[in-house]
Amino acid sequence: MAQEYDLMIIGSGPGGYVAGIRAGQLGLKVAVVEKDPYFGGTCLHRGCIPTKALLHSASVLDEIRQAAELGIDVGDPGFDIGRAHERKQAVVDKNARGIQGLFKKYKVDGIEGHGRIVGRHEVEVQDDDASTVYKAKNILIATGSVPREIPIAPTDGERILNSDHVLKIGRVPKTLVVLGGGAVGTEFSSMFTSFGSQVTLVEMLDRLLPLEDEEISKELQRAFRKRKITCWTGTELAAAESTEHGVRLSFEGKDEPLEAEALLVAVGRAPFTDGLGLENVGLVTDRGFLDTDEWMRTGVDNVYAIGDVVKATPWLAHKASAEGILAVEHMAGSADARPLDYGKVPSVVYTDPEVGSVGLTEAQAKEQGYDVAVGKFPFLASGKAAIEGKTAGFVKVVRDKKYDEILGVHILGPHATDLISEASVAMSAEVTVEELFRAVHAHPTLAEAVAEAAHASHGAAIHF
Ligand SMILES: Cc1cc2nc3c(=O)[nH]c(=O)nc-3n(C[C@H](O)[C@H](O)[C@H](O)COP(=O)(O)OP(=O)(O)OC[C@H]3O[C@@H](n4cnc5c(N)ncnc54)[C@H](O)[C@@H]3O)c2cc1C
């Protein structure tokens, strides 16, 4: 007789494994099913962690190139992508072992195999030739997403790549075209430029990071241009073909084809619900996405969904984790369960310079009818940024004049991905912009720039 669980989670990404740990903490009998040979999902094995580990190699490489300015002579650094991969893998493996350890500690059963819902309270797990049906009071779908393919440039893993392929690439292509100017496309463009590739970044819309505040997009593009990254915005791929040495690409409205050693297709992700048995509980998807209520319940009230499979929410690991915690607390009847405010979920992009943002852009705030004031503070005027030699970018605070509410904070610059947390906490705690800048910020820190921008939105930054 197979085990009976309070909760079976299908998928062990940052949504599923975090939900599993929270369920264990709340005393639920819980199992996490994973079809891959390891727990951790896209984020740990093909996303956040491996990319940031390689981006760290890129950033150290750039720092070494500038070391002479600091009085350190090290000569021209070499770069061995094989060893960078080894270090990246060590980081990934250490984190994966951490998940196993946490599962053990919180009594979460990790089950290997492909999970399929076969009834409202039954999940079948297929592993090699064996299949077992488990009983579950609740089911949580956390099956995530996969790279989106486009018919005109099908990936082959050699010359036309997706983000999974490029994370294993054994060479630094001399020339690389990146299709897609979102977070994934801009991060890989930044990374391979540091590694020595000549990168052309192509985006169909009229700016990079189209979901960010317009000034962030503009300034990032300027910074990329300075780094010799060619950015073609408003440009659509018309055809792609493999050649003997790489790819030949043509674009709408451009006569000349572009030849490159490799093409990275980074045009977004597709939710993954293949073979999940949703039809067995009467669930239908919208192009693979599932609808949920504010507690992450699908149309079937003991079946929850979180993470990248959830419709119209950002593709972010921390969002998936927060939804996982919410879903589990709700099904456990915890008084702590509180619906997520998606407007206060920060977004992060690990380009050089980095991007961190939360809340409304200036344009969105105006569209929504707020009486908007904006404050900006450039890192050029920050003592700490000057010390670090990273003065590109700015902090921008968007506020509502009526109640002095923080509507949005947008940062481009050094450690923007860490700095944005101050704004997220402030927005979640509903402090006013004045309270944000009156809180004394330590000196010299990059965080002072956040306070200065908040001050500037009241008309008066001190150092600018
Ligand atoms: C290159 C890249 C970089 C990224 N960088 C960041 C970043 O810096 N910060 C950030 O917040 N986000 C980042 N993301 C996005 C982030 O990885 C995703 O938002 C996050 O992983 C989604 O988590 P999830 O739990 O919904 O699903 P996933 O992480 O996709 O995990 C789903 C898991 O479910 C398993 N699964 C699917 N179907 C079944 C089944 N039927 N049975 C058993 N198992 C199944 C899959 O094998 C997978 O392991 C990045 C993504 C990519 C591609």
Fold blueprint:
Layout: E1 4-10, H1 16-25, E2 30-34, H2 41-46, H3 48-65, H4 81-105, E3 108-112, E4 114-119, E5 122-127, E6 130-141, E7 145-147, E8 160-161, H5 163-166, E9 175-179, H6 183-195, E10 198-202, H7 214-226, E11 230-232, E12 237-242, E13 247-251, E14 258-260, E15 262-265, E16 269-271, E17 303-305, H8 317-331, E18 347-349, E19 354-359, H9 362-367, E20 372-378, H10 383-388, E21 394-400, E22 405-413, H11 416-428, H12 433-438, H13 448-456
Parallel strand pairs: 1-2, 1-6, 2-3, 6-17, 8-15, 9-10, 9-15, 10-11
Antiparallel strand pairs: 4-5, 5-6, 7-16, 12-13, 13-14, 18-19, 19-22, 20-21, 21-22
Flavin-adenine dinucleotide binds next to strand 2, helix 2, helix 3, strand 4 and helix 8.
Write up this protein:
This protein has 464 residues and is α/β, with parallel strands linked by helices. The protein has helices at residues 16-25, 41-46, 48-65, 81-105, 163-166, 183-195, 214-226, 317-331, 362-367, 383-388, 416-428, 433-438, 448-456; strands spanning 4-10, 30-34, 108-112, 114-119, 122-127, 130-141, 145-147, 160-161, 175-179, 198-202, 230-232, 237-242, 247-251, 258-260, 262-265, 269-271, 303-305, 347-349, 354-359, 372-378, 394-400, 405-413. It has three domains: 4-147 and 271-342, 3-Layer(bba) Sandwich (FAD/NAD(P)-binding domain); 160-267, 3-Layer(bba) Sandwich (FAD/NAD(P)-binding domain), CATH 3.50.50; 353-457, FAD/NAD-linked reductase, C-terminal dimerisation domain (Enolase-like, domain 1). It contains 13 helices and 22 strands. The mean pLDDT is 97. Bound molecules: flavin-adenine dinucleotide. Residues 10-16, 33-36, 41-43, 46-48, 51, 114-115, 142-145, 163, 184, 272, 276, 307-308, 315-318, 320, 348, 350 line the site of flavin-adenine dinucleotide.
